[in-house]
Design goal:
Elements: E1 5-10, H1 13-30, E2 33-38, H2 56-82, E3 86-89, H3 98-106, E4 111-115, H4 124-136, E5 141-144, E6 154-160, H5 165-173, E7 178-190, H6 193-212, E8 216-223, H7 229-240, E9 244-248, H8 254-259, H9 263-270, E10 275-278
Parallel strand pairs: 1-2, 1-4, 2-3, 4-5, 6-7, 6-9, 7-8, 9-10
Antiparallel strand pairs: 5-10
Helix pairs in contact: 1-2, 7-9
InterPro entries: UspA
Protein name: Universal stress protein
Pfam families: Usp
Amino acid sequence: MIPKTISTAFLSSSETRWLAPAAARLCRHFDAHLVGVHGLGPLLPMGGDLVSDPVILPEMLEWQSQEAEAIRETFEAALKAEDIAGEFRSPADDGDAREDFLIDGCRSADVILSAHIPRQGGRANDIRLQEQLIRQAGRPVVVMDEALPLPGPAQHLLIGVSCTRESMRAAHDALYLAAGGARIDLLSVSSSQFERRASRDLREDLASALDRRGYNVTVLEASAPTGEIGKELMRVALERGADLVAVGAFGHSKLFDFVIGAVTSMLLETISVPVLFAK
């Protein structure tokens, strides 16, 4: 399984400066086509009708245009530097919905790349948009931090295993980015004895399936309270030296996310290595 089309969702020119080159390097390793997607930011209300002020509105539109052009130039420079094929997409109509354009523009790719957005200090609109991308795109989304992007095919993966559809999608989607014969750790983090028993047989079946594909598989098990599962996954990934983590995303309702704290949200907050989210 080799990705031949990779999309990158750009939310700002500042993140594009490192994300575009990182995405281009990854595409060069896979000989993949790179699609860069950027939607214009919404015109946020400013003190009532200020957003339609004849002086302020043109300035805001000009800023948006400059931001889009800066992202395009950085993206095209990254394509040229790595000598790969690609294309840049941005809305032709300023009225296009940023969320819909980004998600639709990424949907045909094998894998989507996105930059880590700090939960403390990150723009609320960007945080929400990234979560919607994971929820709605229908493709695996790899979230990376500037300090540690994914440089090429993953040599060592950690896959979070649970008895959910999303978890199994993550396990198989991760193979797009796995090197041949890669080490794969299958980790189940359980908050109860019942969950531990339920995931054990599934984990063994998955280990056998991956072994038949030639991967070097290790089966792991850990315990943690429900609200700490994300931290435990990341702790084990760092301890084991994994260069990619793969998990199912938003497997519970939004109410569950809000009340208890979803694994997805915690991982998005504490990313230390690239994480592939599959929904």
